[in-house]
From TrEMBL:
It catalyses: alpha-D-glucosamine 6-phosphate + H2O = beta-D-fructose 6-phosphate + NH4(+). The keyword Hydrolase applies. The gene is nagB. Catalyzes the reversible isomerization-deamination of glucosamine 6-phosphate (GlcN6P) to form fructose 6-phosphate (Fru6P) and ammonium ion. The lineage of its organism: Bacteria, Bacillati, Bacillota, Clostridia, Peptostreptococcales. Its EC number is 3.5.99.6. This is Glucosamine-6-phosphate deaminase. Residues 13-226 form the Glucosamine/galactosamine-6-phosphate isomerase domain. Belongs to the glucosamine/galactosamine-6-phosphate isomerase family. NagB subfamily. Pfam families: Glucosamine_iso. GO terms for molecular function: glucosamine-6-phosphate deaminase activity.
Length: 249
């Protein structure tokens, strides 16, 4: 696990966008695994700027998003479908048919989950998966649990996640209680993983990811078992790490 620590959120966002852009320059038909949440917004902004300057072309790129709320329509401004279009897809030349986001409205959620994993497998796997991290160390919506769940699945959100995400909704009662998320196996099928974290509220989750035992109670801890993971975090998120374990950039 390589750890790069950037001065602040803006620097982290720039670095993350540079890594995605290098991936797309090296392989124009890259498969990107994308994440939502407030953390990657700056990265998406940088990617849009790079696109506007003609530095990056998304015409052959395909994307798979990590997760989506269950039973929240696409046009709800809190849906991850809406988020991705607002922050990235509406501003770049990606083809509509190359965008994949779990459909939380599918009446048959089991079929939805199985076909999502199948689609990732058929395409040969994701080249680089972007991850944020929850305060409770969830990745995607893989919540602390008694076991790691391999495949894309329907999950009951933890109270702490509902509370954390309620900041985006009018009231906590509006936050969906369930979501569809790629499982740990689906995430691990990615060739590279880039986890972003910003702010002191993530420092403990980052500490547990780096130094803690691998346990489903700390979902991100499993990342130690993947052979190509890079953490791009800011100084605030790195406050609990030993200085010799990361590179300050
Ligand atoms: C959400 C998303 C995750 C995200 C996490 C952290 O619940 N499902 O993919 O990483 O919360 O969000 P934020 O970046 O806003 O702290």
């Amino acid at each position: 696990m390589r750890i790069l620590v950037c001065k602040n959120y803006d620097e982290m966002s720039k670095k993350a966008a540079q890594i995605i852009s290098s991936q797309v320059i090296l392989k124009s038909d890259s498969i990107l695994g994308l994440a939502t949440g407030s953390t990657p917004i700056g990265m998406y902004k940088n990617l849009v700027d790079m696109y506007n300057k003609g530095e990056i072309d998304f015409s052959e790129v395909k994307t798979f998003n990590l997760d989506e709320y269950y039973q929240l329509p696409k046009d709800n401004i809190q849906s991850y479908y809406y988020f991705m279009h607002k922050n990235l897809f509406n501003h770049i030349n990606i083809k509509k048919e190359n965008i994949n986001i779990p459909n939380g409205m599918n009446g048959d959620v089991e079929i939805e989950c199985a076909s999502y994993d199948e689609a990732i497998k058929n395409i040969g796997g994701v080249d680089i998966q972007v991850l944020g991290i929850g305060n409770n160390a969830h990745i995607g919506f893989n919540e602390p649990n008694d076991a790691f769940i391999k495949n894309t699945h329907l999950v009951d959100l933890k109270e702490s996640t509902i509370e954390a995400n309620s900041r985006f909704f009018d009231s906590i009662d509006d936050v969906p209680k369930k979501a569809v998320t790629m499982g740990i196996g689906s995430i691990f099928a990615s060739k590279k993983i880039m986890l972003l974290a910003s702010g002191e509220c993530k420092a403990e989750a980052v500490y547990n990811t780096v130094y803690g035992d691998v346990t489903p109670q700390v979902p991100s801890s499993i990342l130690k078992f993947h052979n190509d993971v890079i953490l791009i975090i800011d100084e605030a998120a790195a406050t609990k790490l030993n200085k010799e374990d990361y590179k300050l950039i």
